[in-house]
Design a protein that fits this description.
Elements lengths: L4 E2 L10 H16 L13 E6 L15 E6 L2 E6 L7 E6 L6 E14 L5 E7 L5 E7 L4 E8 L2 E11 L10 E9 L2 E6 L2 E5 L9 E7 L1 E15 L1 H7 L9 E5 L6 H7 L11 E2 L7 E6 L4 E6 L8 E6 L7 E11 L7 E6 L10 E6 L3 E8 L4 E9 L10 E8 L3 E6 L2 E7 L8 E6 L4 E11 L1
């Protein structure tokens, strides 16, 4: 696909010296009058759940044939039967704050091992049923983090790593802990950090204890919130995340502080998107109105096959990034269609490219994926809006978030839909898309790393 470039801004020209001096004075005055930085969040640890295992409580038992379970004397004993192909798993609900960093730890004593592949560990389960598995294999002194999505095994979040200080003598205990913060899991054995996982945003609602091909005693289980996960909390609130890079931003306003600083040689302003001419431009209209601070995209034709889109090449390094915009629905087409933001991949030989779209209409939000190899669209997820727009043209904050494993659509700061991230794609473009009959205005378009 050719990308004829519509550039919103021309070549920069040097500013006169007197204007630089005036601008510098204004910047200093603005800095002196700036409001104080937000207070740091309280990071005091808070115990969410703990158990001395003197009674079964509300633990969900395993299937009877998988093994034996007993409680008492401060111990939970799980005994996986040698002839069983399944692990023994017990589960308990936990309630964690959406933006909490957290720690889960337990003491594990292996009293009988049936083979060298025997293992024990902790699992964390999300509301959608995804599972993060932290596994300890005493026979080979290895610990690793596995990930299960839609009942399908995914690449390990942390590969098998040797634990130098693991105690393997009869009746010796080891403390296994997993900490989650900043979208990553850290595994500790006996207080020593063993490794850190790939990025995956994950807030569990259930903790599981697991034994396979062995008899193990669990003690001193604790689930605690260790503070506020600043990255997660700020993402939920659409606030800048410390350390993130803005890859593209079209605020449609005059030169702001970032641009002023870049003119002065201090820092670098966010890149303005170089918008392409609209794809299917004979059926649509694209305007950039800096006076009103709006981008307008209209798909005039009622034909379903003729959506209109504009895009900008923006390399998206790393595994996590977000594309967001303030969307005003001025006109809608078919109720099954929508308009919104997207990311796309490099074109294939036939000119098509993979695309992932987060789009809205007045009643719902959806995630769509176009696979250029199969030339087919797939609806990854769809849900009703928690709060539909009150009037025609009312603004909605739409955000498409990509993590290492997930694709998430936020509307007005709320997670509405989520799906597994399509594998194998390295997106390098962002844009706006409108289905037939839709007309939208967009302000504050932005793409940034997480």
């Amino acid at each position: 696909m050719s990308r004829a470039v519509f550039t919103p801004s021309g070549r920069r020209r040097p500013l006169p010296l007197n204007l630089l001096l005036v601008l510098g004075a204004l910047l200093i005055a603005a800095a002196l009058g700036a409001p104080p930085a937000a207070a740091q969040a309280n990071t005091a640890s808070r115990t969410v759940f703990s158990d001395d295992f003197n009674s079964p409580g509300r633990w969900l038992p395993p299937a009877e044939a998988d093994g034996a379970v007993s409680f008492g004397k401060g111990r939970l004993t799980l005994h996986s039967r040698p002839d069983s192909s399944n692990a023994v798993v017990v589960a308990h609900k936990v309630l964690l704050s959406p933006a909490a960093s957290y720690r889960v730890s337990t003491e594990i004593t292996v009293t009988e091992r049936h083979n060298e592949d025997a293992l024990a560990g902790i699992s964390l389960q999300s509301p959608a049923g995804d599972v993060v598995r932290v596994r300890l294999r005493p026979g080979s002194k290895l610990v690793w983090i596995a990930y299960l999505h839609n009942e399908q095994a995914q690449p390990h979040l942390m590969p098998g790593t040797e634990v130098a200080g693991l105690k393997t003598g009869p009746g010796e205990s080891n403390t296994l802990a997993v900490e989650s913060s900043g979208g990553r899991f850290t595994v500790l054995v006996n207080g020593v950090t063993v490794g850190t996982s790939a990025v995956v945003d994950f807030t569990p609602t259930r903790v599981q204890l697991v034994a396979s091909d062995l008899r193990a005693e669990f003690a001193k289980l604790t689930v605690s919130e260790t503070g506020v996960d600043t990255r997660h909390a700020r993402l939920l609130q659409r606030l800048p995340v410390p350390g993130q890079r803005t890859l593209a931003q079209d605020s449609l306003k005059g030169a702001g502080l970032g641009k002023a600083l870049s003119f002065l040689g201090v820092g670098k302003a966010p890149e303005e998107p170089e918008w392409t001419a609209p794809f299917n431009d004979e059926n649509g209209r694209f305007e950039r109105d800096t006076g009103r601070g709006r981008l307008l995209l209209e798909a005039k034709t009622p034909k379903r096959s003729a959506s209109v889109r504009v895009s900008s090449y923006v390399p998206l390094p790393g595994v996590g990034y977000a594309v967001s915009a303030r969307v005003h629905l001025l006109r809608e087409g078919d109720e099954d269609d929508c308009a919104g933001v997207f990311v796309d991949d490099k074109p294939l030989a036939n000119g098509d490219f993979d695309m992932l779209v987060a789009c809205v209409n007045s009643v719902s939000v959806a995630l769509w994926h176009f696979d250029a190899k199969t030339d087919a669209w797939k609806n990854l997820a769809e849900a009703a809006l928690a709060v539909p727009p009150a009037t025609k043209g009312a603004a909605m904050d739409l955000r498409l978030v990509m993590t290492a494993q997930r694709v998430i659509a936020f509307v007005d700061g709320r997670v509405h839909v989520s799906a597994a991230r399509p594998a194998g794609f390295k997106y390098d473009g962002v844009g706006l898309r409108a289905d037939p009959g839709y007309m939208i205005e967009v302000s504050d378009f932005k793409a940034h790393e997480l």
